[in-house]
Each structure stands twice: as structure tokens, then as C-alpha cells.
């Protein structure tokens, strides 16, 4: 945390680049500054030119000040601000959220339908992350293992959905896809959806597995399995899971074509998640 003592003896053109514990003597009282970590994903990472930033803000600043900071520096960012979401310490947060020293802020463009996982070296990448009902993996999804894990004699329905990489998008031939995620937060959000599906649709069990990295045509990017006594509940839960996941879980994909690559247009965030709401 930075302490700036204002008593008129020293003027500074910029507060950026100050080291922790640095004092500036200027005029009238004391300001306390804090340092936060900002993670950038998808098209925002490309726009700002890095995957991670360190910002120094006045203590007690709201999350909106982070958005304003980038809006002042990069005009195009300001035009996107209304469509992005933000997180604080891996939880979605509103623009009025008060920040604290050491907070981790994520700037999140609309999600899955989603860009590449390369370049975000600040975030540790593992072969797999797992929770009670979900997993994020970097290898081929083992569909037989998922079926074996979730199947039970009392079930009358075992519904399995696979999202696969197709060979075309936007009227162009697709070569392959790259998926990236805010991994720990994505796993947490997937688990929340799984728990909600169990409660709301009264199915017995669910599994949600998403793959990251480079995926070839025909490979499975996401698998959802739902086990239930009756098929109607299984169908309803599965559709709700995939539709909601593609709007709220921070996973992005980049589409690679013969003449270049683009981030796929993400699903709009629900109003309750958008940063400026």
C-alpha cells in the first residue's frame, strides 16, 4: 500500500510507478494508495496488449475506477465497457464494488461461444481442475469414463450432450479452435450451475467437463451428462446447463481460418452480471 503525504514540498506529474512505501510530500493531509492485480481475457487482452496489469488506485476506490482507467487510456475500451463483466477475487462483481489492497480483478468480455489460451502466462495452467461435479481439462474428454461415473441402476434416463468443433463459421472454413478460460473462476461457476441444476430440476446427478487449448475439427469441447429417473427432467436440466454456461462461465474461444483468426462473438452477459449494471 502507498502513502502519499501532501504538504506542498514536492509535486508529481504522475503517481504511476511508485514503489510500495514511497512517500510524496505535497499539501493538506494524507492519501492512501493500494495496488491491485488486473487480469485481461479475450479481445480485451489484445486491445490492451497484455494479459495482466498492476494498478495503483486510491484506497477505497470502486471497481468502476478500473474501467475508467482503461477507458481514459484506450478510447475503444470505453465503447466496449457496457458489454463486459468484471470479477473481484473470482466472483462476479458490480461496478460499485469497493476494492481492497491485493484484490484480483478480472475484465471479462462476453463469454463462450468464446479466444485463445496463449499468452496468459500469469495464470497457472494445469492439465485438469476438478470439483464435485465438474472438470476443466486439456486432453481429449473421455466420454466413456463420464458415462461410467454417472450411470446408476435407479436411473431411467442418462442424457449425454457433446459440443463439438465444426468445420465452418461465419461462412468460412474453420481450421481449428483455441479455448482459454479464467480457469479457477470458470470451474467455480460451472459447479454453481451444476448444484443449481440438481436442485431446480430434481435430477439425481450431473457432470460438466470443458476442454481448453487447441481443438481440431470434430473434437469435443464440452460434455454434459445428466442422470435422472425420468427423461423430461434430464432434457430440461441439460438444455439449461449448456444455455446458461455459454452466457455466464468465463471461457472464450478463438476461431482460426486460413487467412487469420478472430475471437468468436460471445453470448451477451445477463443484466445482473454486466459490470455497469
Record the SSE blueprint:
Elements: E1 2-7, E2 27-40, H1 42-48, E3 52-58, H2 64-73, H3 75-80, E4 85-88, E5 91-93, E6 104-108, E7 128-130, E8 134-137, H4 143-150, E9 157-164, E10 168-169, E11 172-181, H5 183-201, E12 205-211, E13 213-216, E14 220-228, H6 231-248, E15 251-257, E16 260-263
Parallel strand pairs: 2-6, 8-12
Antiparallel strand pairs: 1-2, 2-3, 4-5, 4-6, 7-8, 9-14, 10-11, 11-13, 11-15, 12-14, 15-16
What key phrases describe this protein's structure?
single chain, 277 residues, alpha+beta, Ubiquitin-like (UB roll), Aldehyde Oxidoreductase, domain 3, 2 domains, 6-stranded mixed β-sheet, 5-stranded mixed β-sheet, 6 helices, 25% helix, 35% strand, disordered N terminus
Describe the model.
With 277 residues, the protein is an alpha+beta fold. The chain has 2 domains: 2-108, Ubiquitin-like (UB roll); 128-263, Molybdopterin biosynthesis MoaE subunit (Aldehyde Oxidoreductase, domain 3). It has helices spanning 42-48, 64-73, 75-80, 143-150, 183-201, 231-248, and strands at residues 2-7, 27-40, 52-58, 85-88, 91-93, 104-108, 128-130, 134-137, 157-164, 168-169, 172-181, 205-211, 213-216, 220-228, 251-257, 260-263. The strands form 3 sheets. Strands 1, 2, 3, 4, 5 and 6 form a 6-stranded mixed beta sheet that branches. Strands 7-8-12-14-9 form a 5-stranded mixed beta sheet, with helices on both faces. Strands 10, 11, 13, 15 and 16 form a 5-stranded antiparallel beta sheet that branches. The longest helix has 19 residues, at 183-201. It is globular, with a radius of gyration of 22 Å.
Amino acid at each position: 500500500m502507498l502513502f502519499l503525504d501532501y504538504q506542498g514540498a514536492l509535486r508529481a506529474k504522475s503517481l504511476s510507478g511508485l514503489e510500495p512505501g514511497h512517500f510524496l510530500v505535497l499539501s493538506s493531509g494524507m492519501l492512501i494508495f493500494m495496488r491491485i492485480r488486473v487480469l485481461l481475457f479475450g479481445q480485451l487482452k489484445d486491445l490492451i496488449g497484455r494479459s495482466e496489469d498492476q494498478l495503483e488506485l486510491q484506497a477505497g476506490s470502486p471497481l468502476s475506477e478500473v474501467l475508467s482507467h482503461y477507458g481514459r487510456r484506450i478510447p475503444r475500451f470505453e465503447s466496449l465497457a457496457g458489454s463486459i463483466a468484471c470479477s473481484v477475487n473470482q466472483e462476479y462483481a458490480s461496478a460499485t464494488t469497493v476494492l481492497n489492497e491485493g484484490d484480483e480483478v478480472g475484465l471479462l468480455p462476453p463469454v463462450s461461444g468464446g479466444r485463445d489460451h496463449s499468452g496468459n502466462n500469469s495464470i497457472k495452467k494445469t492439465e485438469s481442475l476438478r470439483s464435485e461435479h465438474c472438470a476443466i481439462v486439456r486432453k481429449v474428454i473421455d466420454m466413456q469414463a463420464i458415462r461410467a461415473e454417472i450411470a446408476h441402476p435407479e436411473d431411467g434416463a442418462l442424457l449425454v450432450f457433446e459440443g463439438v468443433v465444426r468445420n465452418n463459421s461465419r461462412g468460412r472454413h474453420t481450421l481449428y479452435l483455441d479455448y482459454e478460460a479464467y480457469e479457477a473462476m470458470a470451474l467455480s461457476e460451472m459447479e454453481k450451475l451444476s448444484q443449481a441444476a440438481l436442485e431446480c430440476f430434481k435430477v439425481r446427478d450431473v457432470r460438466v467437463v470443458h476442454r481448453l487449448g487447441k481443438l481440431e475439427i470434430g473434437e469435443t469441447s464440452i460434455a454434459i451428462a445428466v442422470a435422472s429417473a425420468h427423461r423430461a427432467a434430464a432434457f430440461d436440466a441439460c438444455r439449461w446447463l449448456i444455455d446458461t454456461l455459454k452466457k455466464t462461465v468465463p471461457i472464450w474461444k478463438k476461431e482460426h481460418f486460413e487467412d487469420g483468426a478472430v475471437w468468436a462473438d460471445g453470448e451477451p452477459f445477463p443484466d445482473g452480471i454486466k459490470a455497469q449494471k
